[in-house]
UniProtKB/TrEMBL annotation:
This is Triosephosphate isomerase. The lineage of its organism: Bacteria, Bacillati, Bacillota, Bacilli, Bacillales. Gene3D superfamilies: Aldolase class I. The keyword Isomerase applies. One of its GO terms (molecular function) is triose-phosphate isomerase activity. SUPFAM superfamilies: Triosephosphate isomerase (TIM) (SSF51351). PROSITE patterns: TIM_1, TIM_2. The active site is at H95 (electrophile), E167 (proton acceptor). Substrate binds at N9, W10, K11, G173, S213, G234, G235.
C-alpha cells in the first residue's frame, strides 16, 4: 500500500509565535506510522525554526516554493540547497496560486522538479483545472498535460518518489470540494498518465493527493477512494486540532 501523505499548506498565514505554538502542540501528538505521514509547509521565514522544533518527531517540514537554481543573482529567491540545509524535506511546486500570480509555468515547474530531486527534496507537484476548463470537459487533458510537462526528462526511478497534488482551482478556498468520485476519477487519470510515461510499477508507487477545501468532515470519504493517497490542505491545516483530526482520519486503512 502507498503511504498516505497529509500536507498542510499554510500559504501566507500565521505569525512566528503562532507557527511555533502549532509545531509544539502537534509534534508530541503524532506517532510514527506506516500508514500516514504528516507534513507542514509554513511561510519561508519560519522554516528553520519549525524544522528545529520538529526534529526527531513524526512530522516533516515542506516549503511552499523555491527557485530552480542552486545559487546566483536572484534577489529575493530561495534555492533548493538552502531548503535542504535547513532540514526541509518537501517542496510544493506549481501551486495554482504560483501559476496565477507569480508566472509559474509548466517549464519552470519542470526545472524545479529536477532541482528538487537533485537537492534531496521531495516535490509535491500541483496540477488542476479551472472551472471553465472543467465545464468544457477538458479536465483530464489539462492535468495529464501538466503532469507530462512537469516530469519531462526525468526517469521513472525519480518520479516514483514524487507526490502529485490534484487541486482543481475552483475548489481552492471556496468551500466547494470535488465529490470523492470526481476527485478519484481525475487522480486515476493522473496515474494512467504516469503509467503511460513510466510504466505500471512507477504508477503504482507514485502518491497522488487531492486538495481543495479538504476538512476533517470530508477527508474520510476522499481517502476511501483507490487513487487518493492523501490531501494537500490549506485553510483546515491552520488550526492544530483540525490538522490533528485530518491525520487521525488518515491513520486507519
Ligand atoms: O490550495 C490548497 C492547498 O494547497 C487548498 O486550500 P483550501 O484547503 O483552503 O481550499
Amino acid at each position: 500500500m502507498r503511504k498516505r501523505i497529509i500536507a498542510g499548506n499554510w500559504k501566507m498565514y500565521k505569525t512566528i509565535d503562532e507557527a511555533k505554538n502549532f509545531a509544539q502542540e502537534v509534534k508530541g501528538k503524532l506517532i510514527e506510522s506506516e500508514i500516514v505521514e504528516a507534513v507542514i509547509c509554513p511561510p519561508a521565514p519560519y522554516l528553520y525554526e519549525l524544522a528545529e522544533i520538529t526534529k526527531g518527531y513524526s512530522i516533516k517540514i515542506g516549503a511552499q516554493t523555491m527557485h530552480e537554481e542552486i545559487e546566483g543573482a536572484f534577489t529575493g529567491e530561495i534555492s533548493p540547497t538552502m531548503l535542504s540545509n535547513l532540514g526541509v524535506q518537501y517542496v510544493i511546486i506549481g501551486h495554482s496560486e504560483r501559476r496565477m500570480y507569480f508566472n509559474e509555468t509548466d517549464q519552470s515547474v519542470n526545472k524545479k522538479v529536477k532541482a528538487a530531486f537533485e537537492s534531496n527534496l521531495t516535490p509535491i507537484v500541483c496540477v488542476g483545472e479551472s472551472l471553465e476548463e472543467r465545464e468544457s470537459n477538458k479536465t483530464v487533458e489539462i492535468v495529464s498535460n501538466q503532469v507530462t510537462k512537469a516530469f519531462l526528462n526525468r526517469t521513472g526511478e525519480t518520479i516514483e518518489k514524487a507526490v502529485i497534488a490534484y487541486e482543481p482551482i475552483w475548489a481552492i478556498g471556496t468551500g466547494k470540494t470535488a465529490t470523492a468520485d470526481d476527485a478519484n476519477e481525475v487522480c486515476h487519470a493522473i496515474r494512467n498518465t504516469v503509467e503511460e510515461l513510466y510504466g505500471a510499477d512507477v504508477a503504482n508507487k507514485v502518491r497522488i493527493q487531492y486538495g481543495g477545501s479538504v476538512k476533517p468532515e470530508n477527508i474520510e470519504e476522499l481517502l476511501t477512494k483507490e487513487h487518493i493517497d492523501g490531501a494537500l490542505v490549506g485553510g483546515a491545516s491552520l488550526d492544530s486540532n483540525s490538522f490533528l483530526k485530518l491525520i487521525e482520519a488518515a491513520s486507519y486503512e
